Amino acid sequence: MTEKTELKAGEIIARMDRIPIWGLSYIFIGILGIGFLFTFYDIFDINVSFIQTALTIFHVSSPSSPQIPILLGPVVLLNLIGYIIGSLILSPVSDLIGRRRMLMITMLITGLGSLYNAFANDYINFLIARTITGIGVGADLAIVNTYIGEVAPTNGRAKYTSLVFLFSTLGAALGIWLGLLLTTPPAPFPLGLPVALGGSGFFAVNGWRVMYGIGALLALIGLLLRFSLPESPRWLISKGRISEAEQIVKLMESRAMKKLKELPPLPKVIPPYIIEKHSYINAIKVIFSNYSYIKRFIILLLVWFFGYMTIYSLAAGLTSILASLGYPPPEAGMIAAIGVIGFILVPITTFLTGDRLERKIWTIISVIFTILGGLGIALAGTNIGLSFIGSIVLFYGFNLWVPISYAWTAESFPTRARATGFALCDGVGHIGGGIGTIAVASFISSLLSAGVTKGLAAEVFLLIALFQVISTIIAISIGHKTANRRLDEISP
């Protein structure tokens, strides 16, 4: 590659970096968001519905049986193993063939997994279906966050990651509330949903199947919409496709000029790496042959590993945990469903303020709310209003650090290995989610013989929060700074 070509490529990136607002159509935010809506629908749809699944095809005798959290553990673990496979095998392929193509492939895989889930008739097939879905979800989350990081303005990577994450919260809400509607028996509000359909008839045994069918439909919609996405200019430049990248940047400049009238001065030109031949092995070498990238990988891997132990224990298992602690399933599902309000508040918070603080500072704020929310539920006893407040605070807390850390992880590796680096940290980190879910289920089962008390509930929620505390300590003590800096300065 000639020096002139490298200089031209650097100028194009500098032109993109000077755009202080979102330079693409906001329709593309919505398109990416629809995909995120489905992936988080898939993560949360099991939270309430799994009790009905266990009763109908796993032959569990009671909705409050401690066997349900035990059965849930391997389901979550296999889903996360699929997630890891997708992250580590499929996500890096986007460094080779492009972000756009892989975003369509991952949505297709996720939808097929959800469709398989709808027709599963035993535990083994249910596990296989969740594994396939996890493969698609794991790759999709890594590539979407990589894409956003590469096209968002320098001072708004957390902001626009949060805007896409807003759709995640809508997907989570849809998954939990549909579970409440379709898979639980009716109960007077606020102890349940009066119009719930899961008490009799078709939905009493098939409500959970309908939920996975809806998931497959959402995936199809997301797949069709993604055909219109443009490719990432940074990726095109890394492959030497300079003219294609320039055309997209020109469109971004033109759109920005309509709003701003004048663009800021061109920043310093940083000649980018342009790869003649790309491979997964080369991307791995980029990360593990550089001390800074190795250190970032270890830090972020540990942050995600321990953080996911808390997230998945609650995101996939809160209803089952509460049911095993003595809450009637409709009430347990309602507490989880109301908690989603806290989840929806997360992207609103981080969209408005996410780029004002360093990424790692958010982990402290997040874990404080997690502890307060968990203790709030534990100490509320039979006061359903306090349980609802505790759940809202809990969901706000254990999710608050996530969109910021998505941006942080994508910023921490260079374009030629960004999807690979994100996949390694986030993907391997998901092992913690499966381990956490199984550990919490075992902990509850071992203590239930002494009877359910407020003290037991407090111990359970403190154990769940402890994992996030460890994640936070790692982030704060040795985490690196990336906020409001150009990508090619952070990760050349």
From TrEMBL:
Alphabetical list of Gene3D superfamilies matching this protein: MFS general substrate transporter like domains (1.20.1250.20)
Transmembrane segments: 21-41, 68-90, 102-120, 126-148, 160-182, 210-229, 297-322, 334-354, 361-380, 386-409, 421-444, 456-478
SUPFAM superfamilies: MFS general substrate transporter
Main subcellular location: membrane
Subcellular location: Membrane
Pfam family, one: Sugar_tr
GO cellular component: membrane
The keyword Lipid metabolism belongs to this UniProt entry's keyword annotation: no
UniProt GO MF annotations: transmembrane transporter activity
Key words, A-Z: Membrane, Transmembrane, Transmembrane helix, Transport
Coiled coil segments of this chain: none
Natural source organism: Saccharolobus caldissimus
The Major facilitator superfamily (MFS) profile domain, residue ranges: 28-483
Protein's name in the database: MFS transporter
Membrane topology of this protein: Multi-pass membrane protein
